[in-house]
Amino acid sequence: MAEVRAFRGFRYDLGRAGALSDVVAPPYDVIDPALQQKLYDASPVNAVRVELVQDEPGDDAGEKYARAARTLRDWIAEDILRQDTARAVYVYEQDFEADGRTHTRRGFLARVKLEPFGTGRIFPHEQTLSGPKEDRLKLYRATGFNISPVFGLYPDPAGEVFAALEPFTRRGPPLVATDHLGVTNRLWVVTDTQAVSAVIGLMGPRPVFIADGHHRYETALKYLDERKAAGEVPDDAAAPNFCLMMLVGMSDPGLLIQPTHRLVSGLPAVTSAQVQAAINGPFEVVERFGRDAAACWEHLQMDGSQEVLGFGTAADGEWFAAKLVDPAAMAAAAANQSPAWRDLGVSILHKLVLEKLLPAALASGGRQPPEPACRYVHLLDEVTAAVAAKECPLAVLVPPATMGHVERIAGGRETMPPKSTYFYPKLLTGLVFNSLKKD
Fold first, then answer.
1. What's the rounded Cα separation, in Å, for the pair 43 and 138?
2. Is residue 135 one of the residues assigned to a domain?
3. 238, 156 in Cβ contact below 8 A?
4. Taking Cα atoms as reference points, which of 131, 124, 140 lies closest to residue 213?
5. Could you tell me if 216 and 136 are in contact, meaning their C-beta atoms sit under 8 angstroms apart?
6. Burial of 222 (0-12, 13-18, 19+ CB in 10 A)
7. E strands, 114-238, where?
8. What is the C-alpha separation between 242 and 122, in angstroms, rounded?
9. One domain for residues 241 and 345
10. Do both 317 and 188 map to the same domain?
């Protein structure tokens, strides 16, 4: 069972730190250098100064992590960050715009007991990369804190868990922060022991699916192993056994999965006709759109299935949509995967198109087969700009996965290809910090 606990979080004393909007930051993996500098400029105590520390001349391999640790210690010593006196769970709401509508996503921050994947009731849904895990592990070692939360999902069709917390959102004003994208973030501190006990009891039998933050979760497991080896984990209640997690019900109406499109490099300057010829047979071209990428994307949205992908080639600027019409080809390409995994659009793209059909077609004439690599973007404007600038020979529009895909695939202990899902908006860093050394 998933073990959820209230905890004494560290939070900004806004009387000393200033406006909450000025001190919060997105998670490290969406901060580019320009945004990093903007956040540095926003406040001398912005959370980015521990979440993603700027490099300085003369830094050795570990210096920026040591600087993050010194910064955090200074903030605590100066009461810029203060630990709450009572254990709490923290209700967290986000208002945001998507698809021309305003949405509200609601959940709560708590400590969740770590379980190695494959052993309990916490399930990953995406494959991870080694680089981000090493970076986060160095930060954990230096600071002894979860700086930003993992994003977890739990099944709750009736909304029972959040119903135990919702009354507290009406009893007092929240802390409010507006982030750089205009998302309104609200936080309430819930210390009521009866409500907290109800939440813990209701969460007990439910699985948790990692939506975002796989690298942070796996890093927390590695950090726990290291602390155990060092003799610093006296019992199952010790702080390193847990990680900071935002928990959202899978039926929450504000829980949206956005698409993650692929900009494919490592290929020659292919034309639309060449791509069509390469995938012909397993796929059938259903419509051609000339240079209109927006019309191609609209076609995918209207179709609503996972079998239709949109292809754009930089060499001629042409776009077309193609549908998988031979499921047996995908079954053969991914024989070791489940039917649910094989039905996913990004799986079809990576396993069948990028790993098999395109390399085979482009390796004719004795040439070495190319090795496609992907850059991931979320907005259609990013795709069209990359194609127009010829930053990649091929761009592929993919349909978003659904919560059903996440539950079926992760629940079967499989992981989707990297960047299969994009849960917008990201959770803010800086609302609550969790110590890995003390309660």
1. 24
2. yes
3. no
4. 124
5. yes
6. middle
7. 122-123, 145-146, 150-154, 175-178, 184-190, 208-212
8. 13
9. no
10. no
pLDDT in tens, 108-160: 999 999 998 777 789 887 766 666 778 899 999 999 999 999 999 999 999 99
pLDDT in tens, 335-362: 999 999 999 999 999 999 999 999 999 8
Q: How crowded is the C-beta side of 398, counted as CA atoms within 13 Å?
A: 32
* Tokens of residue 57, six digits: 């001349």
Per-residue 3-state assignment (H helix, E strand, C coil) for 188-213: EEECCHHHHHHHHHHHCCCCEEEEEC
User: What crossing angle do the helices spanning 130-143 and 214-229 adopt, rounded to 10°?
Assistant: 50
Instruction: Give the C-alpha separation, 251 to 113, whole Å.
Output: 23
CB 18 within 8 A of CB 177: no
Residue 169 DSSP class? G
Domain housing 174: 4-256+424-435
CA distances to 49, 148, 218, 306, 374 from 346, rounded to whole Å, are 35, 28, 23, 8, 12
What token pair was written down for 336? 């070791």
Say whether both 321 and 372 belong to one domain: yes
Same domain, 213 and 276: no
Q: How many domains does the chain have?
A: 2
